[in-house]
Amino acid sequence: MVNGRRAAETVTVHNPATGEKIADVTRADAATVHRAIEGAAKAQRAWRDVSAVERGDVLKRTAALLLARKDEFARLLTAEQGKPYAQSVGEIEYAASFFQWFGEEARRVYGRIAAHPEAGREFFVEHRAAGVAGLITPWNFPIAQGAKKVAASLAAGCSAVWKPAELTPLIRPRHRSAHGRGRTAGGRSADRAGAWLGGRRGARGASGSARPQPHRLHGDGQHADGRSRARHQAGLVGIGRQRSLHRAARCRSRLHCGATHPLETLVSGQVCVTANRVFVHADIESALTEKLAARLEAARVGNGLAESMDAGPLIHRQACTEVGAVVDQAVAQGARIVAQNRSYESDDSLRAGSFFPPTLLTGVRDDMKVARDEIFGPVISLLRYTSVTEAVRRANETPHGLAAYVYGPRPAQCHAIARGIEAGIVGVNEWRPLKAEIPFGGIKQSGIGVEGGEEGLREFLEIQVISMPKPIMQPT
Description:
Layout: E1 10-14, E2 21-26, H1 30-47, H2 52-68, H3 70-81, H4 85-105, E3 112-115, E4 121-129, E5 132-136, H5 142-155, E6 159-163, H6 185-193, E7 197-199, E8 216-219, H7 223-232, H8 256-259, E9 277-281, H9 285-298, H10 317-332, E10 336-340, E11 359-362, H11 369-372, E12 379-385, H12 388-395, E13 400-401, E14 403-406, H13 411-420, E15 425-428, E16 443-444, H14 453-458, E17 461-469
Parallel strand pairs: 5-6, 5-8, 6-7, 9-12, 11-12, 14-15
Antiparallel strand pairs: 1-2, 3-4, 4-17, 10-11, 13-16
């Protein structure tokens, strides 16, 4: 207690590569979250009346500000999340693309006039901002996932309260104190560009508490998290897709198809669209395994701020323990470790880091935990198949459906296979085909709603129908 008031709870942010402390941030309590929502509600009344063109200009200025400070943001992102600097730069550019896209889409929110069954009347079908948006983002892509939600909600005329992940709350221009006070990079850039965005890091008590409540809730997390939020936010839509999907990849005739992509080096496999399972035809299993092992062993794993790194650490030590347990169980059940990359062990400064060796497994079966559950680590699991029909059937034997990949030399056949796979997005001879211009979301238990594309804007809009008498021309 300080002067009769309870001291604010803090969360310490560490560099996962070195274990060093970066900053302490304050965790907001329920009252703080409620004040943020109330402030957002007041700001939204004015923001919704700003013209769509002006709202779009604000978002495009935000994109420009992010790109102008790309290096600064990327270095901070790498420090707190661990991904290599080049991947952090890519994330900043990806985030900016959503502000640019929705800045252009803001002016394309059209209503329509529909025919009325009664003579002399007509329907006006209009779109209006849903209200305050509550945004919850994960630690693996902390600024990109925020940008998708922030840009779409502001373009629609909503204000937003953004809760970043506790593990990665620092994406902002500079530290002003050891306690990390200030907005995230996306939030500060949006503020500078002219939008209102409340940033509440480490917030507790937002879901399931008494009013006020946001009108839209968008979040990313595991399936159980989403179901819990849905129960607490009854009547809200746009619960973000859950990250739990077994992905399928196919490469039968051209060995380079599956071997030239990094697979598990992007964010060290901590990506919701990572290829959890790689189905490989029995005829080329040996050759593909050899190529993948060579690439995995040649990768550079270490501090993401060092030059030319391919992979960094996992987010924390517990993640290493969990991934290791899954690999150990698979080996005990008959899988084989073909290759592991422990190049980070040669750097003494990384001893306190949370590294897990990128690992290639063969002999994986469908009933193993490593094939059933999301690994969220740098593990490539190869599963043998003998026919395309078999591979598609096995790929679909999961309650999840976020992303999948199909590799092969014949586009028509690949397209047919892709259409048979039950996933929200399928890349044909392309890894992670996620762009601002297209909607992205899962099917089955992989979430509700989409992000990106014109569909992503609709998540933050409500439809109002007004039945009106047709104007009657008065004689002059």
